[in-house]
Specification:
157 residues, mainly alpha, three-stranded mixed sheet, 6 helices, 3 strands, 39% helix, 8% strand, binds pyridoxal-5'-phosphate, PyrdxlP-dep_Trfase, Aminotransferase class V domain-containing protein, pyridoxal phosphate, PyrdxlP-dep_Trfase_major
């Protein structure tokens, strides 16, 4: 992912095209270093590998693009600056965000590599179980898949 992002970033700088990285699986699945990636935009939900209840996500926007980036929903905070405009989109259910600090404590106490090892192992086990049940085979050699998305190995029928 990092090399693809780096390629995108360098070509975007050349062509002056902002880059938005859809990192839906990024948070939790890998060590996310936004400083090093330096994207224009990066979005990730927190309900996949990070294990926060559905509805919790984040969007990173590079400082100099924030004044040009507006929310789809105009609600409280309109005209009060970037963070205020995005912080309260009407009747959105914010309760999943309340679990965030507990989940972060969990990641801190167990450790990312131990959690990932467990999740990848479980995912791989599930994948091979399905391959066997469905009588199908890998869509591509195993080494072509990132360790975080073994589930997609099951796609070839
Ligand atoms: C690359 C990518 N973008 C976006 C999404 C959508 O995520 P959400 O569950 O928040 O709708 C997914 C879901 O798997 C995804 O893989």
């Amino acid at each position: 992912m990092n090399s693809t992002t780096t390629q995108c970033n360098s070509s975007s700088t050349y062509r002056n095209v902002p880059v938005l990285i859809d990192g839906a699986h990024g948070l939790g699945a890998l060590d996310l270093d936004l400083k090093a990636l330096d994207p224009d935009y990066y979005i990730s939900n927190a309900h996949k590998w990070f294990c926060v209840p559905k509805g919790c996500a984040f969007m990173y926007v590079k400082k100099d693009l924030q004044s040009k980036t507006r929310p789809l929903i105009i609600s409280h905070g309109f005209g009060s600056g970037f963070n205020s405009e995005f912080i309260w989109a009407g009747l959105h259910d914010y309760s999943p965000f309340l679990a965030l600090h507990t989940v972060i404590d969990f990641w801190d106490s167990v450790g990312p590599s131990k959690i990932r090892q467990f999740m990848y192992g479980l995912c791989k086990k599930a994948c091979y179980l399905l391959l066997k049940k469905w009588g199908t085979s890998l869509a591509a050699p195993e080494e072509m898949f990132g360790k975080e998305n073994k589930g997609k190995l099951c796609a070839n029928r």
